[in-house]
Structure formats: structure tokens, C-alpha cells
Design a protein that fits this description.
Length: 927
């Protein structure tokens, strides 16, 4: 419909108001024409229908001509007030295009549009009078709906009495007046209103009141509590600066009837619930109730709920739950229950039908509630880093946060992305606009964050919300919580918690411990800090270390039973079977923890536990590497053994430290500690220990390319191992002897000791050393240019290393296969093997192997003509060699780089790399 900028009012005296003022309508006939056209605004009204409504059943013969004349005058009046074109001639009739108050009332039921009797000042017949009756009925129905929701207003009784006077037999109005009087305590007056209606209906119509009114009369006689319904509006105010949670809100778009919002203390459960409740409140027109269940028993909560719904204290029945469900039946009420502790506290408050919404916040997931009802659970996690940053920006202002972006990121970390901690930190900064964010970060770093994250005048701190969750724990769960607070790692396995005592499920349900998946759990950093302050630790650290020692001992028996210096009682409660793959998978998950645990043992002065745990993990590090962490572990272990005065333990951990130093290319340091260990084992008469050290010292000499000294050490190892009756030790020395011959460029001498060692390892069923020997044989045959057997040895080594999940040997075998395929003229397969080796090396954190593999990849790239990839790999190799220093290997990188630059025609750069390579090769030869 085309609007003309004016308004036609028919809900009272007929008026037309245009941009230039009110239209001058002369006489009832003109007002009637405007009114009936307005009733059908935007739609043509036929001439004959207009004649019927204006003149009735007996119109004059001139009615049509008279109608045209009146329409012309109305059209002119509309034009004069600024509404030209509002009244249009249509085929067979007329049409009015304008805003009409009656149409607006149809859409909005806005009673303020009414100014009196509808179509006042008109003279209508037939269907026109019916339209007036229809409008009157709409108005009274709207008034009934309006006052039905407002019976508790002070003027409700007065207004309803006035309406009843005008409509004395309208039962809905009479019922509303009776309810209002009853709520006001005027029970007799309510019954008198019913009596008058019943007499009037009987006298005038010979009928009784309808069943609804009769039921209301009976309820008032009985003082039924159901009559005391109210429309509560109890939702708390929204929290300022709400940020994030878009996915969680989207998941609630379908308005599930029961929602549980759970999460760790301080994560913003109540804030989220109130925000969502406010967003959907208009979809629950019968009211919104808020109850804090932390301070109420279930019975008190139910009574409070009835009071909120309008039931007086003296009308609460013996079975309040039944009345509660009755009051909510057929209604749409939103009920927010905050800080619920147990599912059983909620069960009496679940509405009986689906029209209402029960919204619950709880630290517990309330899984028991889901066994009886369909529950939608929203588990609130910590804010993401961008969301946490946005929250700070909302509170502090974008310019302040942008000015200190690094400090803001640090503040997010110190607050652990916990909304309450972030809000408190922001509040502290907001009251001091001149304070730098970095200053607060420094304060958090130097002091107890739980002490810093407070605001004067607000007792809701991070510590108090954690304490409120802690108070609900059983004694067993509280003890476990205290012990887990001492665990130094980022996460821990379920078996560790179970070994410390019962209570893990309770801690998870209370969101004091987070379930990370794959059987692992974690404490939020601030919760861990609170746990450490939550009670007496007792022997918690000792029990944690004892569990780690038990696990490490059982793992060592599977990975390498030759490491038998430490013995422990057999344990059946293990998280893995006696299977190498299972053991390594378990320890892989714990790899980052073990260094932290050893540090904890050292800090606590538990020297025996410190060195034994480091020792028992030897087999794992032999299989997996991560030698930088191993160096520090052994350093702690050596100090602990010295503190105990245990020379044998000291020697063993010096040996382990030497191996780790050698594997991180710190050969000179490795040689020093190995010789220190050798002195100790000789003093102790430990032949096996002495033989192992000769082997290790030989390995160090070999890495330094001091091959004659290496051979001397290996022969000494063979002799001492033989004297000790250690066949595997003798075989290992032979394997190292053969490997050194290969490195010396004498592969023809390597075959005999290597095949002898291989026979022993197979007889002793030692697959790890079998794989190592097969790789040495592969290298020997590669040097002899007998490539097909070399491929076979490397392939067998790869198969075994993957079977036993020894990633270090897997990387070596893949590298051997790669360089052999390259020698056979198949660079594409070579690249595939070497790329796989590089992935494994990087996962191990083995910089030496990574640098060597990158150089081999560059050689493969050159063979494929991919000069760009070759340059990238060589640049990466040079970078890796800055950490894993090896002059010989570095010389080879420069030699390959020189070849690349020559192929690119960059002769100056090629000469520079050749010069560096020659210098390094010469230095290696001299050393």
C-alpha cells in the first residue's frame, strides 16, 4: 500500500491528520466515507457497498450521485491537509491509502491508540455497525489481556470495576475483578461480584455463569493457593562488557527446556546464564524467577519459588511441589537456579511441562539429572586468547590495550584466561588509569597471584570462589586435590591420580580438575596454586614420586632390562602391559612431565628418588632421544648421588650424562664426565660399569674422528665385558668397532665384527641392538658400493625399529635408505625416505640428525634439479648446525653449498663455501 504521509484515526472520533494539519470534514456523511474506506485501507471498496453502509436498505435514487459528490469534497479536504492522492478512484469503487490506527491496533494491541468510541461522529448502517461492534470487542479483549497480566497493580481493582460497570455480563472481566479482589484480601467482595453476575444472568438471560467462572468461585471459597499467581521479573542485571561465547549461545537457539551451565569456578557461569536469560526473556511472558541455591535447602528453594509466583506464606501447602507444577502448567516462565550443588536439589523444581525453561548453573555437571530428564549441558571453557584480550579492551579501552599489546598478552596468560581473574585485573587497572598494564603483570609475577587478584570492597575474589568449590568436596577428594596440586606437569594420567587415592571423578565433576581426553587430566594454573595452599600435604610428594618410580621401573624392565641397578617390588597396578609399544606410548605422553618431576624431587631434597627416577628412565631415552632434557635430568641425578655418597649411583648417572652430552654434540664435556665415571667404577671394582664406559668413551672418540683412540676403547670394552661374562656387552663393543671402521673408510674390516655382533643380538633376542647392527652393515655395504645388500640391511633395520617404536633408529634407517637410493640413481624415492627421516628427527628434537638429514635432502634436490629446494634445505642445515655443532658435518654442508652455487653460476659464493669447507676439513684432520 502506498503511504501518503498522513494518518486516519477511527478508534474514537474520526479524524484525518496530514502534513499540513487536520482535514476539515464537514458533516457525518464525509466522516462516514473516510471511516469505512479506512476500515479497508489499501483495498478498493465497491460503490454499491458504500451506498449500503451509508444509506442502509432504502437508499435514495440519487445516492450514487450524492456519493460521488461527497467523495470529491473529501478528496479536496485530504489534499488541503497535505494528502493529495490518498483517496483514489478504482474500477467500480474507491480506495484510501493511509496509515490507519485500527490497522496498527490489529498488529500491536496498543491500547493507547484508543481515544473513545470507535467511528464516533459517523452514521453507518448494516456492515458498518458490525465493524463498530468488532472494534469494540477487540478493545475489550485487549483490555482483558492487559489487566490479566497486571492484577498486582495498585489501580487494577478500580479500573476493572469501571470496566465491569460498562460490561456487567462479561465473564472474563468479572473473573479478573474477582481475582484482583481476592489477591487484595477482599474475599467477601470477590464473592459478592460473582453473586451479582449470577443474579443478572439469571434474571436477564436465564443462564448460569460459565464453568471457568464457577471454578474460580469455588477456588476463592476454598482460598486455593493457585489463585495467588504473579508475574515475577527477578533476573539480575547483565554483567558489563560481556565477551565471547558465541558458539554456546548458538547451541541454545532451540530453547531446550532444561539447561545446565557448568564449568570451573570463576569461568562466568552466572554471567553467561543471566546474559542468555535476558536475551530470551521476552519469549517467557509469564515471568522470570531467579534463585541462589547456595544459601537455600531444597525445601526452602521450593517455598521461595512459590512466593515468587505469588503464593502467600500462609497458603503454602503440605505438598508444595504439586502446587508449583500446577502454577506453571500452561505457562511460559523462565527459572534460573544459580550455584546448584547436587542434582537432587533441583529435581523438585523441574516444571511438569515443556513450555517453561529451567536454567541451572553449577560447578558440577549434574549428570544424575540427565538420568531422569532431557538435559542440555553447556560446559563453559576458559576464554580464548582473543576473547580474553577483547574483554580487557572492552573494560580498559582499545587504545590502552593496543599501547601495551605484549603486556596485555602476558596479563591474559597470568590470569589463565579465567574471566573472573581477567575482570578483577581489569578493575584494578581501571581505577588507576595511569598505571601501566606491565606493572600489574610484574606484580603478578613477583607475588602470589591469588593475593593480587582482589579488589577492595568486593569479597568475590579468585581465591574465595575456588574456596567455595573446595568446601563442597569430600575429605578423600580434598586430600587428592592437595596432592595433585603438587604435580609439576601440565597434565597427568588417570592412573597417577587413582594411585594417590579416590576422588578424581568428584574433582572432575566439580571442575577443579579438567578432563583433557586420552585419559589425561589437568589443573588450571590458578587452581593448582590454590590447591597447594588448601591444606596439609603430608607425604604427598613422596607418594607422587613413588608412583613415578614404580612406573619407570616397570617400563625399564620392558625397554632394557640390562639397566638393573635399581630394584623395586613387583606391581600389578600398571597402566600398560609388558609390551614395548604400550610402554613407549605411555611414556611419550609423560615425556614432558618427567623432567619436572625430577626437578621436584631435587628441590625437595629427596636424593634417592631423584637419581633413581633418572636412572630408571634410561631405556626410554635410548629409544626416544630428547637428549637436551636428559642432560638436565642426569645433572640433578649426579648431584643427588653425590649428596648420598653413593659412588656407584654417581658413576652410573655420570655415564648417562656423558651419553646425553654426546648426543647433543657436546663431545668434549661428554669425555670429561665419562672419565670421571671411569675412575669411580674402577675404584668400586665394577667391571660391567667399566666396560660400558670404555664403550661410551670410544663413541666420543669416534664422534671427534679420533678413530685410533676409539678402536682402543672398544677393544678395552670387549676385554672387560668378556672378563665380566657379559656376551651382549662384548657384542655391543664389536658393533661399535665395526661402525668405526665404516666411518674410517675401511668398510672391508667392518663386516666380520658386525656379523658376529648381529649373531649374538639375535641369539639374545635383543631387537634394538639388532636394528643398530643392521644399520651399521647397511652403511658398510653402501661404502663398498654394494647397494642392493645395503638396501636389505636398512630395510630390515627400519622394520624392526618401527616394530619396537624406536624413533631414533627409525630416522637412521630412513636416512640410510635415502642415501642408498640416491646412489642407485633413484632421487625421487630417496627424497621420500629422507623427508620421512626429517619428520622423525624433528619430533625427537635431535638437532644433529636433523642437520645431517637436511644436507642429504639437499644432495637429493640437486640430483632432481630442484635448486630452490636445495638452497632451502642447506640454509636450514646451517641454522641447525649452530645448535648441534660438528665441524666435519658443517664442512660437508659448505661443500654441498659450493656445488649448488657453482650450478647457479655464483662463482664468488661457491669459492667462499669451498674455502670454509677446506678450513673445516683441515681442522678435523688435525684434531
Amino acid at each position: 500500500m502506498r503511504r501518503t504521509g498522513g494518518e486516519v484515526k477511527i478508534l474514537g472520533p474520526v479524524e484525518v491528520c496530514g502534513p499540513h494539519g487536520r482535514a476539515v470534514l464537514t458533516g457525518a456523511r464525509q466522516r462516514s466515507i473516510v471511516a469505512v474506506l479506512a476500515l479497508h485501507a489499501g483495498t478498493p471498496v465497491a460503490v454499491d457497498r458504500l451506498v449500503d453502509v451509508l444509506w442502509g436498505d432504502d437508499p435514495p435514487r440519487t445516492a450514487v450521485r450524492s456519493l460521488h459528490s461527497h467523495v470529491a469534497r473529501v478528496r479536496q479536504a485530504l489534499a488541503d491537509c497535505g494528502m493529495p492522492g490518498a483517496l483514489m478512484t478504482k474500477p467500480g469503487g474507491y480506495q484510501l491509502d493511509a496509515f490507519v490506527d485500527a490497522a496498527a491496533f490489529d498488529r500491536t494491541r496498543d491500547l493507547s491508540l484508543w481515544r473513545g468510541e470507535p467511528l464516533a461522529g459517523t452514521e453507518l448502517f448494516g456492515w458498518g455497525r458490525a465493524e463498530i461492534d468488532r472494534l469494540r470487542e477487540q478493545r475489550i479483549a485487549a483490555l482483558e489481556a492487559y489487566w490479566g497480566d497486571r492484577l498486582d497493580r495498585p489501580n487494577a481493582i478500580e479500573e476493572l470495576e469501571r470496566l465491569v460497570v460498562g460490561h456487567p455480563t462479561r465473564e472474563r472481566l468479572v473473573g479478573l475483578l474477582m481475582r484482583a479482589l481476592h489477591r487484595d484480601g477482599r474475599h467477601a467482595d470477590a464473592l459478592e461480584v460473582f453473586r451479582r453476575l449470577r443474579h443478572r444472568l439469571a434474571d436477564e438471560l436465564g443462564v448460569d455463569p460459565g464453568p471457568d467462572l464457577l471454578a474460580l468461585h469455588t477456588a476463592i471459597l476454598r482460598r486455593d493457593p493457585v489463585l495467588h499467581t504473579a508475574k515475577p521479573a527477578q533476573l539480575p542485571a547483565r554483567a558489563g562488557h560481556f565477551t565471547g561465547r558465541a558458539a554456546e549461545f548458538a547451541a541454545l537457539a532451540g530453547l531446550p527446556p532444561i539447561v545446565v551451565v557448568s564449568g570451573v569456578a570463576g569461568v562466568g557461569k552466572t554471567t553467561f546464564a543471566v546474559e542468555w536469560a535476558r536475551r530470551v526473556a521476552d519469549r517467557f511472558p509469564d515471568g522470570q524467577v531467579f534463585l541462589d541455591l547456595q544459601r537455600l535447602t531444597p525445601a526452602q528453594a521450593l517455598t521461595e519459588m512459590l512466593h515468587s509466583l505469588g503464593v502467600p506464606a500462609d497458603r503454602v501447602p503440605a505438598d508444595p511441589a504439586a502446587l508449583y507444577r500446577t502454577l506453571l502448567h500452561g505457562k511460559r516462565v523462565l527459572i534460573l537456579l544459580d550455584d546448584v550443588r547436587r542434582a537432587r536439589d533441583v529435581l523438585p523444581l523441574v516444571p511438569g511441562d515443556q513450555g517453561n525453561l529451567l536454567l541451572i548453573t553449577s560447578r558440577d555437571a549434574l549428570s544424575a539429572l540427565g538420568t531422569r530428564h532431557a538435559v542440555h549441558t553447556v560446559s563453559l571453557d576458559l576464554l580464548s586468547e582473543p576473547e580474553a584480550r577483547d574483554l580487557l579492551a572492552d573494560i580498559l579501552g582499545e587504545p590502552r590495550v593496543c599501547a601495551e599489546s605484549d603486556a596485555t598478552a602476558d596479563l591474559v596468560v597470568h590470569c589463565g584466561r579465567l574471566p573472573l581473574a581477567l575482570r578483577i585485573a581489569a578493575a584494578r587497572l581501571a581505577i588507576r588509569p595511569g598505571r601501566r598494564i606491565a606493572d600489574l603483570v610484574r606484580e603478578l609475577t613477583r607475588n602470589d597471584p591469588l593475593d593480587v587478584l582482589t579488589v577492595d570492597g568486593d569479597d568475590r575474589t579468585v581465591r574465595t570462589v575456588f574456596a567455595s568449590a573446595h568446601r563442597t568436596l569430600s575429605p578423600q577428594a580434598a586430600r587428592l586435590f592437595r596432592v595433585l596440586g603438587e604435580h609439576p606437569g601440565a597434565s597427568f594420567p588417570a592412573d597417577l591420580a587413582d594411585a594417590m587415592g579416590p576422588g578424581l571423578d568428584e574433582l572432575v565433576a566439580s571442575h577443579l580438575v579438567n578432563e583433557m581426553g586420552n585419559g589425561r587430566y589437568a589443573l588450571h594454573d590458578l587452581i593448582r596454586l590454590f590447591a597447594r595452599q588448601s591444606g596439609d600435604l603430608g607425604d604427598g610428594v613422596e607418594r607422587l614420586l613413588d608412583r613415578y618410580l614404580t612406573i619407570a621401573h616397570a617400563a625399564g624392565e620392558v625397554l632394557n632390562p640390562r639397566h638393573d641397578l635399581v630394584t623395586r617390588p613387583h606391581c600389578d597396578d600398571l597402566p600398560f602391559a609388558a609390551d614395548r609399544v604400550e610402554v613407549l606410548a605411555y611414556l611419550d605422553a609423560e615425556r614432558d612431565n618427567v623432567l619436572h618431576v625430577i626437578r621436584m624431587a631435587a628441590r625437595s631434597g629427596l636424593h634417592r628418588e631423584t637419581w633413581q627416577l633418572a636412572y630408571l628412565l634410561t631405556g626410554y631415552f635410548e629409544a626416544r632421544g630428547n637428549w637436551a632434557a636428559r642432560v638436565e635430568q642426569c645433572e640433578h641425578a649426579v648431584k643427588a648421588a653425590r649428596a648420598l655418597g653413593d659412588q656407584r649411583a654417581e658413576a652410573e648417572m655420570l655415564r648417562g650424562q656423558g651419553i646425553a652430552l654426546q648426543m647433543t654434540s657436546r663431545i668434549a664435556e661428554a669425555m670429561v664426565v665419562q672419565r670421571q665415571a671411569l675412575v669411580l667404577v674402577r675404584e668400586a671394582g665394577d667391571l660391567r660399569g667399566e666396560a660400558r664406559l670404555h664403550n661410551n668413551i670410544g663413541n666420543a672418540h669416534s664422534e671427534l674422528r679420533q678413530f685410533d683412540l676409539a678402536l682402543e676403547s672398544y677393544r678395552a670394552a670387549m676385554e672387560v665385558h668378556g672378563a665380566a661374562g657379559d656376551e651382549v656387552g662384548v657384542a655391543l663393543a664389536r658393533r661399535n668397532l665395526g661402525y668405526t671402521y665404516v666411518r674410517m673408510g675401511k668398510p672391508d674390516l667392518a663386516a666380520s665384527p658386525l656379523f658376529a655382533a648381529l649373531e649374538t643380538f639375535r641369539a639374545k633376542e635383543n631387537p634394538r641392538l639388532e636394528a643398530a647392527t643392521l644399520m651399521s652393515l647397511g652403511n658398510a655395504f653402501h661404502k663398498l658400493a654394494d647397494f642392493e645388500p645395503a638396501l636389505g640391511f636398512f630395510g630390515d633395520a627400519l622394520r624392526i625399529s618401527r616394530e619396537i617404536t624406536d624413533h631414533r633408529f627409525e630416522a637412521d634407517a630412513l636416512t640410510g635408505l635415502g642415501v642408498t637410493h640416491l646412489a642407485l640413481g633413484d632421487p625421487a624415492v630417496a627424497r621420500e625416505c629422507l623427508t620421512g627421516a626429517l619428520v622423525v628427527c624433528r619430533a625427537l628434537g635431535d638437532g644433529h640428525r636433523e642437520a645431517s638429514t637436511l644436507r642429504e635432502l639437499a644432495e637429493t634436490d640437486l640430483a632432481l634439479g630442484d635448486l630452490t629446494a636445495a638452497r632451502d634445505h642447506l640454509a636450514a642445515a646451517l641454522t641447525a648446525r649452530t645448535q648441534a655443532q660438528d665441524e666435519f658435518e658443517l664442512a660437508q654442508v659448505h661443500r654441498t653449498f659450493a656445488g649448488l652455487e657453482g650450478r647457479c653460476g655464483r662463482w664468488t659464493e661457491a669459492a667462499r663455501h669451498w674455502a670454509q669447507a677446506v678450513t673445516l676439513f683441515t681442522a678435523c684432520r688435525r684434531s
